[in-house]
Amino acid sequence: MRRASRSPEETRALGERLGAALGKGDVVACVGPLGAGKTCFLQGLARGLGVRGDVTSPTFVLVNEYRGRLPVYHVDAYRTASLTELVDLGLEEMLHGDGVTIVEWADKLRPLLPARAVTVTIRGLGDEPRELDFEGPPDLVAAVSEAGH
Q1: Which of 47, 40, 33, 30 is nearest to 5 (CA)?
Q2: Any residues with CB less than 8 A from the CB of 60 and at least 6 apart, and which?
Q3: Which site among 39, 46, 66, 125 is 20 to 30 Å from 8 CA-CA?
Q4: Using one digit for the tens of pLDDT, what is the confidence trace for 89-126?
Q5: Are the CB atoms for 8 and 40 separated by under 8 Å?
Q6: In angstroms, rounded to a whole number, what is the distance separating the alpha carbons of residues 149 and 147?
Q7: How many CB atoms lie within 10 A of CB 93?
Q8: Where are the beta strands (DSSP E) in the chain?
Q9: The whole model's pTM is what?
Q10: Domains of the chain
């Protein structure tokens, strides 16, 4: 399913709707170029999961953990060089654990993603409107389309 976003607020709102529908063990894989709005979308996603406070991209630490209604693991694979490096970080335990795992630059670890992962591909840069494509379990993808626009 494709959704359009004309502002960072709309991008966050799409993330928040998906976040509200996520449960234990769910994985959201975000793909898009630098500056497309992945972190903006994931901030909304975290808000939908009940995370309070700032959500920032963990580019230098690779994983941030937040507390919401479930544990939220925010993984940034941008600086990783191999799947082995991600496995060594404990990624597989996160992907199959009791929380929700959200991954930026998920195209770098597609072989590790569970079949039930929701993939969000974001297109657009600068002041351009964004297009967000959602693929994954119909119940989760539907949550994005139910409210709003």
Answers
A1: 40
A2: 79
A3: 66
A4: 788 888 888 999 999 889 888 888 998 999 999 999 88
A5: yes
A6: 7
A7: 12
A8: 2-5, 27-31, 63-67, 71-76, 100-104, 118-123, 130-135
A9: 0.88
A10: 2-95+104-146 (3.40.50.300)
